[in-house]
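Aim 2, interim progress. The first record below pairs a target sequence with its structure tokens.
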Amino acid sequence: MSAAKQFQVRRYTYDDYVTWDDDVHWELIDGVPYAMSAPSVQHQGISVNLTRLFGNYLVGKPCKVYHAPFDVRLNYSNGDDIVVQPDIVIICDQNKLDKKACLGAPDLIVEISSPSTSGMDRVKKFNCYMKAGVREYWIVDPDTKSVQIFLLENGAYIGHGYFIDPDTISVSTLPECEISLMEVFSEV
């Protein structure tokens, strides 16, 4: 499907999503498609650093880290009309994986925000992740070199801290894992 193609006014599902042009990255939230722009160099640097830090910690452990583009079908068993591509996901239950995607909520999601994605990350995705049961959600802001963390408690996200470079973050869903923001934002 061409990026310029107009979508009909209707609710789309994963079955539609997999037929769209692979040259454009899409997300599907409540049946509405959203085209994603290419990430900045700064965004990619942060993503690589975080993926490496998580990956190094997870060697030999049951949890695994995946980075975008990687499909997460948040409600695959109930409508299948929410397909997101978070920047980074950590999945501890490998039974949630099929050959193409994560089926259901990952344990941890990281979104690296930008001025153009901030509203989506802080409202639409925030609510989707909370409703789906994502236990820990990080919003990384490259401009302020900060990370805001939300933990799922009794079905709602509770702010668990606002961290800035050079703070070190203890990852709630990964016991004994600590992430140095100095390393996350280095060379960025």
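The second target in this work package is listed in the same format:
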Amino acid sequence: MNFDRRQFLVLSAAALRVSAAPKPFEMSRVSFITDEASASPEDAIAFAHKYNLKWVELREVPGAKKAYTDLTDSELKAAARQLKEAGLRVAFFNSGGTKYALPGTELVRWSKMAPAEVEKQRASHAAQHAKRMEILQRSIAAAHAFDTKYIRVFSFGRVAEPEKLFPRVADELGGMGEIARKEGLLMLLENEPACNVGSCAEMAALIAKLPESTFGLNWDANNGQSMKEKPYPDGYSLLPKHRIKHVHMHGRTLLDPEKMLDWKTIFAALVKDGFRGAAGLETHYFDGTKIEKSHLCMQRLQEILSIRS
């Protein structure tokens, strides 16, 4: 059959549209926080292999009650080598070093505590703030060891009027982000109700004060629910999509009817909006069943993504 030039151009354009179509979200882009799904690093690797996962997230060493930031350089290298040999990559490093109260601020939850306990926490938080650069450097060292470019941080302990504190929070985080940028890394801001950024609305407001060269977003789709925010589509619609680098899924959003989210639709929206990162399972069951629930969550994700895998 002979084709004229117009037919050729039409067919070529159609082929280009097909090739340019975004690839559906697949299990190969699912990660998990190792200390929530396993009792040891070896168990974490077995868990990943069971579900054909390629990515993990690191916070505490599974079963050790010890943060990766507390490991020596040689221990970090050994842990990184173990993951690499298992064919696993680190989606991002979960640093928890910015959940404390900024000096001179009053946390909302302190109003319900005894004065002596408040003073004890105030002193502890001040000590954490004094060590923030040391913790940042340890997080940077861990990120380099595990060959990941993202470090997760929070927006400090929540005060009564968070928005009024945003300029200071942005200044504090901005300085940390600049240090990370010079190391070739990007900080990711996560929304957390116990911190000054809990909802997507607050996340959008604060991230606007931080340069794209130093900060992106880790969107925790569940965390806004406790603040009466509908995560999707309401909360999601407020976020600058190009700055979302990672997503967290709480186990309850996959398993519990009252908190379940439509992840199939959320994944489709993320792909449509150009999201290229991973979505990580943060199981977050505190009744002694987190490992069991982690398996159930992965089975549920396999069901959700089965038509695309």
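The chain is about 45% helix and 15% strand. This observation will shape the mutagenesis plan for the next reporting period.
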